[in-house]
Amino acid sequence: RAGIAIYSPHTALDAALGADASSTATEQAGLALFALGEGRDDVAVEAISRALELAPDDAALHYHAGGVFRYARYLPESESKNRAQREFERALELDPDFVPAYERIARYLETDDQFAAAAAKVEEALARQPSFLPGLLRLEATYREAGWEALRLETLDRIEVMAPASLLPYTARAQRFAT
Predict the structure, then answer these.
(1) What is the pLDDT of residues 104-152, one digit of tens each?
(2) How many Å apart are CA 91 and CA 80, to the nearest integer?
(3) Nearest partner of 68 among 91, 96, 95, judged by Cα
(4) Which end of the chain is more exposed for a tag (fewer CB within 10 A), N or C?
(5) CA-CA distances (angstroms) from residue 15 to 19, 34, 41, 59, 112?
(6) Contact 104/66 with Cβ under 8 angstroms?
(7) pLDDT tens track for 54-86
């Protein structure tokens, strides 16, 4: 068995931690996302923080940072949520056309039962990019959670037109008749 190298994600992660400090923001963000997937939230937060220092004006980087902060479970829940929301908002400040950030912000508004604000945020994204299917799906979920059935049905119609192969409009309508 001598001379056989066995790959381990943790070994690779530990090696990456010692990487040259001149690495790019993209490399640091990649490390952060990899570390998060490996359950190393502390490493993920450290790497995404370095990435943000290297490229503070990159909207996509702020969006990914929001995801890292949100899923870093070693952080207190309120800190995780607040840091994530700030990063998603910063992404939109840097690039108002970065529509995935609208959907993420809408999720936070929903968790605070601010359904009208969440729906408005998603509609803002859809005004910028009408073909943003994840936005329509978020809007349908918002209306469902709020109990706004008429608006939900209108949104299901929009989804059916945009994504005719989607099963959601059909199953959602069928659920209305379930006992």
Answers:
(1) 999 999 999 999 999 999 999 999 999 999 999 999 999 999 999 999 9
(2) 17
(3) 91
(4) C
(5) 7, 13, 16, 28, 40
(6) yes
(7) 999 999 999 999 999 999 988 898 898 999 999
